[in-house]
Amino acid sequence: MRIGDAAAAAGTTARALRFYEERGVLPPPPRTASGQRVYGPDDVARARAVRELLALGLTVEDLRGVGDRIDVLIENPQRRCGCPDSGVPGSGVADRRLAALNAEIDRLTRLRDRLAQRVGDRSSSSPSAPAAALSAEPSRP
């Protein structure tokens, strides 16, 4: 099937398939004599798996390092993404991404708490000028 059909079957765009190929997440498909890409069911399954992993918070760079292991997940979808064997290339990708996500959640939680303290804490008699300005309703013409 051609790239447009493969993209539709995988729930993505032709542009995304080209991007994944450029980044080494998808192997280059065979081409016709005129240079058009030809995709098969395995390519579509791999593109779907890539999209699912990206939706879980992994990055294209994360997947690039474990591209050969994506096929294992396709064959056995219930298989865990993590690999305790530190000798395997790309092992720990999911653990590192989880740690990065947890750090970002912590950072955003602290930021939210600081903003809530400055804007939302109405118990003090005189909020700071910036906090008062931020909490005021915008004027309408």
TrEMBL record:
Keywords: DNA-binding. Residues 116-141 are annotated as: Disordered. The keyword DNA-binding applies. Residues 123-141 have a biased composition (Low complexity). GO terms for molecular function: DNA binding; DNA-binding transcription factor activity. The keyword Transferase does not apply. Residues 1-69 form the HTH merR-type domain. This is MerR family transcriptional regulator. It comes from Streptomyces liliifuscus. The lineage of its organism: Bacteria, Bacillati, Actinomycetota, Actinomycetes, Kitasatosporales.
